[in-house]
Design goal:
It comes from Roseinatronobacter monicus. This is Nucleoside-diphosphate-sugar epimerase. The chain is α/β, with parallel strands linked by helices. It is about 35% helix and about 15% strand. The strands form 2 sheets. A 7-stranded parallel beta sheet has the order 3-2-1-4-5-6-9, sandwiched between helices. It has a two-stranded parallel ribbon with strand order 7-8. Helix 1 crosses helix 6 (about 215-225) and helix 3 packs parallel to helix 4 (about 155-175). The chain is globular and about 65 Å long.
Length: about 300
Amino acid sequence: MRILFTGGAGKAGRHAVAYLRDQGHRVLNVDLVALELEGVDNRRADITDAGQMFDVMSSYAGLDELEAGTGVPRFDAVVHFAAVPRILLKSDNECFRVNTLGTYNVIDAALKFGVRKIIFASSETTYGVCFADGTRKPDYLPLDENHSTVPEDSYAMSKVVNEATAQCFQRRSGADIYGLRINNVMEPQDYAALFPAFMQDPALRLRNIFAYIDARDLGHMVERCLQVDGLGFEIFNAANDTHSVDLTTAELIDRFYPDVPLTRDMGADETFYSNAKAKQMLGFAPQYDWRAILGK
């Protein structure tokens, strides 16, 4: 497939782009900074500028595409990860503006140029736990896509708005538009660097609902979204199968969630951030577990 990928130079994006490249796709990374990755083309553009997004959506990916002499090829899919990645990096209103206007522009341009498959990055923060003022617990566990989304911060608000925007575009266009509520992304080097502290103090993971998504498995999830057609508008949690601390699920419930209802029995180290929908509808099959990586 010929794929336009926004935000491919970011922490999550660079691994997903590498995965897609390795699957044989041609990827044009659209970002404010270039991704130095062999076999991947780059275009510097601002997602908040509609003109720039219309331009890149209708342009050659590289000089080699001139050789056919048949005009500009059309993108088969758009993967939209570009965003201000969390609160406290820019002013709140700028975070909200960039993320919401940028998503509108990307989806609008994609659909007007005939793209029928769009995947966009939403966030675990939509559930209102991650950046709450004080401690907020889920309404029930395991937390699935039917859980309410009532955040109170500008970043998570922008992601909720983006989901509504995407759903509205899908309703009018009939295209496939899938949103990924991505949990805390872990790169390969993060396990040795970060997880020892999680073992010492499990409470460090409370705001992430004790979950994580390996960046390489996130690439696999994007690939599954590209391959599964006909779902219309859907939202999927993106997380690995297990939680991220050296305690059992039962021990975590006793310590942190004694008053939170369980909707079913859970496995000994099963994630609280349910990925069941993605596994069932997309064939998502995460491969990386921190226990195996660290020899636990």
